[in-house]
Amino acid sequence: MSPTAIRYHRGMGRWEPNAQGRLVQAALLLYVERGFEQTTVAEIAKLAGLTERTFFRYFADKREVLFWGAGALQELLVSTVATAPESEAPIATIRSAIEAAGATFQERREGSLLRQSVISLNTELQERELIKLASLAGAMAQGLRQRGVPEPGASLSAEAGIAVLKIAFERWVNAMGEPDLPQLIRDTFDEFKAATSG
Amino acid sequence: MSPTAIRYHRGMGRWEPNAQGRLVQAALLLYVERGFEQTTVAEIAKLAGLTERTFFRYFADKREVLFWGAGALQELLVSTVATAPESEAPIATIRSAIEAAGATFQERREGSLLRQSVISLNTELQERELIKLASLAGAMAQGLRQRGVPEPGASLSAEAGIAVLKIAFERWVNAMGEPDLPQLIRDTFDEFKAATSG
DNA sequence: TATCCTGATGTCAGAGAATGACATCGCCCT
DNA sequence: AGGGCGATGTCATTCTCTGACATCAGGATA
Description:
Chain A is mainly α. Chain A has nine helices and no strands. Chain A has two domains: 1-62, Arc Repressor Mutant, subunit A (Orthogonal Bundle), CATH 1.10.10.60; 69-196, Orthogonal Bundle (Tetracycline Repressor, domain 2).
């Protein structure tokens, strides 16, 4: 089937509303159906009823559509770190933040799994994911520093948290038994402590 | 100054020898002088006395030139893991491997710093670096698994090692006092343990 | 109401990355 | 001498991404 343009309302204004949302929806649909590489930006734009040029006004590149939520995730992590109890150990603060992040993935379980299935099939997308994760680690480290945690402890704690998130997420995706991601994160943190304290 | 083609010997065979080496040398030169983005593959190829098409026969993309040594590094890590004492704790094995990797950077100090200065100025290159590091972690984890270390401990230990490498390397690059990288890695491992055992 | 302005989108042109198909031609082997 | 091989060149093409400029509905303003 060849999908026609995605429309929402009828000509309310000069253009259909929610251009960015239509682009995201169109891109995700095509990435899932044909794969990321086999999808051109022109096709995405056409499906969204827009032009290629407009796509690049909303997204820096073809990959970025899939990482639209990264900003909100970073805010969640940073605010969780910022509002943690003063007396708490840095690694415990990071643990709380990562658990909170895990909860949001759990809430959007279907979407998260779909998105990951696309990413897992393409190296370029994995690269983008890794740099987003590194950015998250950097933001959490900065949050810790603002709370007086010195380097390199701040960065090391943040990196540890991201490592746990990565591996817990991977377990979550591969597990058919639908475990709870926050719980998996807690378990993985414990295993991490056991594995690295040798 | 506009550099002319890089030549080695005089027409020994049909072509100048060491085409790949000339490409690496030319690319590095231009990346340092003009920056990565401002350098085109056509320019690199011309400086190496070759064509654009030949560049892409040796390197999958423009970035890959800078990660030429990753294969050897991975072999070093894997073989270090493989030959570690049987009784050793997994995290200690990883620590040894990372230290060995650090030693090779220390040996090529100038080149490592130059390379990193190029990478640090460009996001695309940082993405490639991160996925290479992830690949190293994956290889080390597999090495541990072959020694009977179960998941998720194997992956967690490997990721911890890579996190330490990243941060120790960063300290090494930013430190003007020329500290010893293997020693910095040892110190960072100790700080990591302290930071994550809270 | 007439006019101006703004912002979202379209149109066009172009550089540069990357890839496939095929040509070239010294060198080595027999 | 002849033939095949392998490294390189040539050519054409698709696709990503960007800059410059055009368009035009709707809101603000006089």
